[in-house]
Every structure is written in C-alpha cells, then in structure tokens.
Amino acid sequence: MHALEALWFTVVNWLSFHLVAPALAAVHLTRLIDNPQEIAQYFLLTAIQVAVIAFVFRPMESLWPLEEWAERKGTRIDRAYTLIKLFGLLPLVSYGVIAPIGHLLGGGGDDDASGIFSLQGAFPWLGHHPVVLFLAYYAIYDFVYYVVHRLQHRIPWWWALHSLHHSQKQLNCWSNDRDHYLDDLLEVICVSTVSVVIGVSPTEFALLVLIGELLQNFDHSNIRFRFGPVLDKILVDPKYHRLHHMIVDPDRPGLHDCNYSFVFPIWDILFGTALYGEPARPTGVGDPMVDADNTRGIVGQQLGVMKRFWASIRCKAGWRPGDVAFDENHRPVSVEEFDLHALEASQTPLSAVRDSR
Ligand SMILES: [Zn+2]
Ligand SMILES: [Zn+2]
Q1: Model pLDDT, residue 132
Q2: How many A from CA of 122 to the centre of ligand 1?
Q3: Which residue of 2, 105, 223, 330 is 20 to 30 Å from 270, comparing CA positions?
Q4: Separation of 221 CA from ligand 2 center, angstroms?
C-alpha cells in the first residue's frame, strides 16, 4: 500500500513539475494558483475516471448490452460532453474562478473545514472516526442531490434545462455528463453551498464528487446488470437509474416519476419514489420539442435549451410545479392538458395547446 502511495505522489509531483506548472506559467496564471500539485492530482484522477469508462464500462456495454443498437452514433455527443466537462470546463471553473475567489475572500484552505453548522463541531467524536465522518458528509451530499433532482423534474423552468440530460435515447456510459451548463452551474451552487454550511474542506469535496461520478457513469451504461435484491437497496445500479430515464408510458403516466437518487436509493425509499421490479423501458423524452435535442450538436443543444428555459422563466406556467411539455413557442404546458397517446405518436411540436389554456 505504501509503495502504491509513493508511486502516486511521484507521478503527481512529476506531472505538476513538468506539465502543470509550465502550462500555468505559459498562460500567466502562476500567481492565481498556488498549488500545481492539486491540479496535477485532479487531472490524474480524471484520467483514471475516463480510462475506467472507456476501458471497463464501454467494453461491458458490448459484451452485455441491455439494448441492442445497430450503431452508436447517438452516443458520441455524450462522450464529447464528458471530455469537455472533465478536462476543460470543470478544472477551468474550479481552479481558474472558484479557487482564486476563495483565496481573495481569505478562505478555501484545506484546513478550513469549519462551517456555519459544522458536523465536527456538533459531534466532536466524529473527528476521531474519519470513515464515519466521511460517510456522514457523503450521505448529506447525496441527499441534497436528491432534493435538487426532484426540483429539476418538478419546476418547469428547471425541467427545461434538465430535460436535455433525459433526451438521450441511447443511454450509455458517457451520458452522465450530458447536461446543460446552466443546469450544472445551479446544481454546483446548491451542493457547494451545503458543503460550506456543514464545513467540508475543498479536498474532501473534490473526493466526494469523484467517487460519486464513477458510480453515476456506471449507472448510465447500457449494461444488463443489477446489484441484486439486497445491494440494489443500498447502492444505485444501472437498472435502477435506467428506470428513471424511461420514456413516459401513456397508459401509466406517473410511472417515470421515480428513482431520483444518485448514489443511495434510501432517499427514494424514504420519500416513496423508489421503483423496483419493473422491466427496462426505452429511454428518452416523449415531448417532441425535447426530443429534437437529438438532431443537434452541442452548441445547438445548449442554445435550443436556452430558448425553452427563457420562455419558461417568463411565464407563470414555468413556475407552477408539475409535469410539462413545451409548445412551438418553447413555453411549458402541463401534460394534464393533452392526450399522452397523441403526444407519443406526434412528431411535430405541440400546436393549439397553448390556445386552449
Ligand atoms: Zn432526472
Ligand atoms: Zn441520468
């Protein structure tokens, strides 16, 4: 174990000295970032994450596919989303924007684990039980994600953004990062606010994110796999999350309102949103306006989603909780107002529905 640790730090030091520090100097950012080792460690962990997706989850999709696809063309855009986010946007925002602001405000150090409500402050013995402390942080973090995820589906303007994640009909090992960037930003603000309140240090927070990410990559994979009747109540598996992505069933319109948990299904079980034992259904969104995301590239998707987001926040219906579809003017319409069978069959945006409200 010590040899492995030593090897890890050797690689991190080598990367930070030979790659990260010169790269920062080249873009005149040395002053802003005082620890190139932290960045080297981030890139190394991310490279491992991407390697696990590409060389473990992806071959598993070929060996044990849940859905048989003639080709995987629709999955390529999700791979691009993942690479852009993990190697570009995330480090740029974390180390180029958030870290410098944190330092300017005088915080952000790794010893700075005191929050408004610090778990360690409230329960000092947790300080001597790092594994329990870590699990407690993780549970809180996962619960916040659960609440945010319920809102992403419930509030029409937030669904306007989150529906991009759901429009994928070939759900695959890269799909976890297929998100609208504004949706990502809102999610990060909610979760990091909580982490500041309960007092998680930045390093702990980064580790929390990475562990959860890998499980979520696995859970989006097109793999015929489940953890079994006991473990699948403790951890989310691919079958479980796939049910969350199911396309609406017009005969059972509330069925897809399930399985919001990211890591621990306990939140779904406690709040009555867990669904087990249902055979897998095709994934995607029945609303033709959302489904049209699949005809666009990344820039087209980001802009197209902004249209329905913008139209939603400017009308009352955009703030009224409930399931919606979007009309030809990108405005949300409650799904209770129309026939889901007709919606499933229609290939064109909703028409006339707006007038009937
Ligand atoms: Zn969702
Ligand atoms: Zn998902």
Answers
A1: 81
A2: 33
A3: 223
A4: 10
Helix, strand or coil, per DSSP, at residue 179: coil
Q: If you measure from the C-alpha of residue 257 to the centroid of ligand 1, how many angstroms do you get, rounded to a whole number?
A: 9
SS3 16: helix
* Cα of 262 from ligand 1 centre, angstroms: 10
Average of pLDDT values for 103-127? 63
Q: How many angstroms separate the alpha carbon of residue 176 from the centre of ligand 2?
A: 6
Tallying the residues shown for the chain, one arrives at: 357
Q: Please list, residue by residue across 203-222, b when 16 or more beta carbons sit within 10 angstroms of its beta carbon and e when fewer do.
A: ebbbbbbeebbbebbbbbbb
- Give the lowest-confidence range in 35-39, 80-84, 246-250: 35-39
pLDDT at 297 over 90: yes
Distance 318 CA to ligand 1 centre (A): 17
Q: Among all ligands shown, which has an atom nearest to the Cα of 238?
A: 2
pLDDT band for position 346 (cuts 50, 70, 90): low
Q: Specify the 3-state DSSP secondary structure of 228.
A: coil
Q: Where are the domains of the chain?
A: 2-270, 288-356
